[in-house]
């Protein structure tokens, strides 16, 4: 980022393991001179270019910025205040940039709304919160009934001082970034579902083509979409809590969780403890990647083309265990005729069975361990393992099944997933959510595949139960 103005020296305490400093020059892509202020906004004292609101601990700042070069468009946003790289985590006026910053104001109005206006009085952005209180004298601080405060978590909170009730908060309106403590709504009886929406490009915060959120048809998987087309699909949730690998550079792990609060189901993520927990963030980028970062990227997906949704076509899977990930047909399948004529590592048209299944009880199942199960499954509630297997075996249209036994209080304790038709978007490798899937194949009364699958699943259930018991 270019440095077109030095910030006022500010004394900020940051985790010693990251850096130690008393004052710093904040590198901004902006020609606006930023001066430090306190952590709140009150009626009658608007925020203008040249001023910022700083959280109590100095971690976050709110103010005017411009990511473009040359400077054409300006925005009000929240960014990390005390790391060298200028990193925005929330933008108010994404779709309505400021073109003349010298006359713009960000204010808390008498109707208890945060409003961004240009020099002509045109409202570019507002919270549209319902007015709960009246402010008799906006210039008399003793009579102030509302305030907007930038919390140490990066949350801009508009609250009533009479009862401390939250009127509006930026955490309820995510842009492209999910911070620890934020909840991304997956299901609600009345409110719309939420998605993270990428920037248009690296210098344009307006809503871009990629988004991240839950499958609108169920809560068992998450997607990255390119417009309305799936771009990347996560593994199906194995549990209400996914613990990532231990990261030596953080001395901690990163978790992702499904939570339930009244009539709302939401996902969250973060670190249990540690000096860098407030710097962890999840972001959907303008390139269509989901990144988990601190001061540097810790995890990103998709890693390569083979991880893109449906890259290997139907009845094929991406083998991440190879030195160079490649598409492979399931056993008993072969590339379609059109694919045979190409020497490509992807099967755009996928694979087909060498011999068609016949509808009889002699068909057996072949186990595929460590797989991301396919998309477009049928979720059968409250089935035992044997009942799940019988459900698929007795259904001539069923081509595969998978089973889990979990305990979350949010998702059904037993999960039987069935597939009919072609199997799409499978991967083999070491990733969260990997499990066994049993694919139906021709056989003469052999139940060996089912027995093997059941034994492996029981071992996996015991492993997961042991992990949960030790937490």
Structural summary, described in words:
The protein has 471 residues and is mostly beta strands. It folds into three domains: 1-172, Agglutinin, subunit A (Orthogonal Prism); 174-302, Agglutinin, subunit A (Orthogonal Prism); 306-470, no CATH class. The chain contains three helices and 33 strands. It has an eight-stranded mixed β-sheet. The longest helix has 23 residues, at 448-470. The protein is elongated and about 80 Å long.
Key descriptive features of the protein:
471 residues; mainly beta; Agglutinin, subunit A; 3 domains; four-stranded antiparallel β-sheet; 3 helices; disordered N terminus; disordered C terminus
**Count of DSSP H/I helices:** 3
Percent of residues in helices: under 10%
**CATH fold descriptor of the largest domain:** Agglutinin, subunit A
Q: Which CATH architecture of the largest domain?
A: Orthogonal Prism
Cα-based radius of gyration, to the nearest Å: 26 Å
Biggest sheet features: 8 strands, mixed
Strand content: 25-35%
- Under the CATH scheme, which class of the largest domain? Mainly Beta
Instruction: Count the beta strands.
Output: 33
Task: Flag low-confidence runs.
Answer: 1-36, 131-142, 444-450, 460-471
Mean pLDDT: 77
Main location: membrane
Domain Apple: 359-442
Domain Bulb-type lectin: 38-171
Subcellular location: Membrane
